[in-house]
Amino acid sequence: MATIKPKKLPNKGARPIYPEPKLISDINEVAARYGFENTSKLRYWETQFPMLRPEKRGGDRIYNRGDIELLDEIVYLVEYKGHQLAAARQLIESGRSQRNKINRAIEQLETVKLYLENLKEVLT
Predict the structure, then answer these.
(1) What are the tens digits of pLDDT across the range 14-25?
(2) 0.90 cut: is pTM over it?
(3) Residue 11 in contact with residue 65, Cβ under 8 Å?
(4) Which residue ranges form the domains of the chain, and what is each CATH number?
């Protein structure tokens, strides 16, 4: 299995830079992306991160771009920052929660903006 090494890190703890992920990849390609000798770590992480659910086709795991972006984050937190799996899971979940709150706020602001634009049009 060919290993794809990330570019050199500028300093310890810096986020690794991987090539742009393909639209879909099998488990062997994903393991090679992170320099894993086999696929067992990925299979185990699937049990520890409920949000990591690659599609299964005929028993084969197929990772989409979203799965790989999530794995980039997991690898960074666990392999580079040294977090335990539970801590990494909690950090990822809290980050998703924050993004959801921000997205809801943006939607509300867009609704208010539309209302104000309509009101301005009526008043002029």
Answers:
(1) 677 776 777 778
(2) no
(3) no
(4) 24-123 (1.10.1660.10)
